[in-house]
Write a structure and sequence with these properties.
two-stranded antiparallel ribbon; 14-stranded antiparallel beta barrel; Porin
Length: 491
């Protein structure tokens, strides 16, 4: 009879299943890295009042007016992620590299030399940037003296038992002997992983994907003093995360011949794909030939996303179970969730640039972004009510500063940059501040140009091994080392 009840609950779960999301899922799209051309990256992305680079229109759309000719560029980047993990004193390192064409675009420049209008220049551009490369991997291992990952399934089962919301993980945990109804109260579920501490954990996670941004740009200048621009941006995202979580314990068997689970392997593969839209408005004012100021606004990005999830669960070395059940396996189906919406926060940037003797420049951008305005939506707003409240409570208004410089020596250009971005969290233990440095060199052939940059950034953050039930985190230090090559041509 109990088995029939579990099957009935599982059947109903297919009708009302909802995915379990976290703050990190939102920040995957709300935080954008500094990508683009080698010149842009080598100067730390401080291009809000500089312009003259196809990636600069992502900061300020008016920047396309600082091209003197029709211009095109393409960029190739080598991405390197180095993750150092610390889990209850055990340290591990994982290094991962990929190569990708991360930027390609062109701009057309039209000059009105007749003098019949004060609006004397128009620029039209189309540019693609990989706004966020999502390729990464990390490995965590160590002995947790407090909690078993079985608490995730206990948490799921007790949530289901006390409400009409159902989750197939309830049946998954029961079929593999991880959970059972309590002897004292059959409506409360308990773990069959015996108590006593010292749970050895391993978690290996790989992710692959991108968040691409295609920008259509239009800009016009007034009396060669005021420069105005607008971007319409289309986003395309495809992300796959695969993780394997392992646990082992050698604690004494549970009393009263209750089942006892020794080893657990929990596999997850999450795929997220979809599209988005945003727009940018920007202005640059030339105070004189040496000094410019700029201001720009980037709207929220409105995403429509889809998730697919596959889970497999194994248990090994089970005791006090029927013969043949010492090892159990549960293969989950492919869950395709209903489409949902994600709105990331808007961004405001103020900029200033000083150009000296036509030989070099120094530039500074200051940007502000209120991450607490991040919001999930779908047809049933109650599905995300708790998560949206958490985003509003945990996240904050953050600032970013970018400083860049360039100096020309004949055909050569030498560049450097600095970037600092505050944590999006009010309590930055969850994710720390980001600090980055960059440098580069370029050579101008006249009609074409080549540029090379190197950028380094680092940030610390907490990584959950599982989304609920067990809240113990690994501390990860992520260091990114990226090399970008750009070829540009006037036409």
């Amino acid at each position: 009879m109990k088995k029939i009840l579990f099957i009935a609950v599982l059947h109903f779960s297919f009708l009302s299943f909802a995915q379990e999301m976290t703050t990190s899922d939102a920040l995957r799209y709300a935080i954008e890295n500094i990508n683009g051309t080698a010149r842009f990256r080598s100067m730390g992305g401080a291009f809000g009042a500089v312009g003259g680079d196809l990636s600069s229109i992502n900061i300020n759309p008016a920047g396309s007016l600082f091209f003197n000719n029709n211009f095109a560029s393409a960029s190739l980047t080598s991405y390197n992620n180095n993750n150092s993990a610390n889990y209850f004193g055990t340290k591990n390192k994982e290094n991962y590299s990929t190569i990708d064409i991360n930027q390609i675009g062109a701009v057309l420049v039209f000059n009105d030399k007749s003098g019949s209008s004060d609006w004397n220049k128009i620029a039209v551009a189309l540019n693609y940037d990989n706004s966020n490369n999502l390729d990464n991997r990390f490995f965590v291992s160590g002995v947790n003296p407090y909690n078993s990952i079985s608490q995730y399934f206990v948490d799921q089962a007790n949530f289901i038992a006390n409400t009409e919301f159902n989750d197939y993980q309830y049946d998954m945990g029961y079929e593999t002997y991880i959970i059972n109804p309590s002897v004292a109260d059959p409506n409360v579920f308990v773990s069959n992983v015996s108590s006593g501490g010292n749970y050895y954990h391993e978690n290996f996670t790989t992710s692959n994907g991108y968040n691409g941004k295609l920008s259509a740009n239009f800009a016009s200048s007034y009396k060669n003093k005021l420069f105005l621009g607008i971007n319409l941006n289309a986003y395309f995202t495809d992300y796959v995360s695969t993780s394997r979580l392992y646990e082992y314990n050698d604690n004494p068997d549970n009393p009263n011949t209750q089942p006892t689970v020794r080893e657990i392997v929990f596999d997850n593969e999450l795929s997220t794909y979809g599209s988005g839209f945003s727009f940018n408005l920007g202005a640059i004012y030339k105070l004189n030939d040496s000094f410019r100021i700029g201001a720009s606004y980037e709207s929220p990005t409105w995403y429509r996303l889809n998730d697919e999830l596959v889970q497999d669960l194994y248990t090994y070395g089970n005791s006090n179970v029927p013969s043949g059940d010492e090892n159990r396996y549960y293969a989950g189906p492919v869950f395709v969730f209903p489409t949902y919406q994600l709105r990331t926060p808007s961004k405001i940037t103020g900029s200033a640039t000083y150009i000296f003797n036509k030989k070099g420049l120094i530039s500074i951008d200051v940007a502000q972004k209120d991450y607490s305005n991040t919001e999930f939506k779908n047809t049933n707003q109650n599905d995300f009510r708790v998560l949206n409240s958490q985003l509003s409570t945990e996240l904050k208004n953050s600032y970013e500063i970018r400083i860049g410089g360039e100096y020309k020596i004949k055909q050569f250009s030498i560049r450097g940059g600095y970037r600092f971005e505050e944590s999006p969290y009010k309590v930055d233990v969850a994710m720390g501040d980001l600090t980055g440095y960059s440098g580069g060199i370029g050579y101008n052939f006249g009609e074409s140009r080549i540029d090379l940059s190197y950028s380094n950034s680092h940030r610390n953050y907490n990584q959950n091994l599982i989304s609920s039930g067990m809240t113990d985190n690994a501390r990860i230090r992520n260091v990114q080392n990226n090399v970008t090559f750009t070829y540009s041509i006037n036409f």
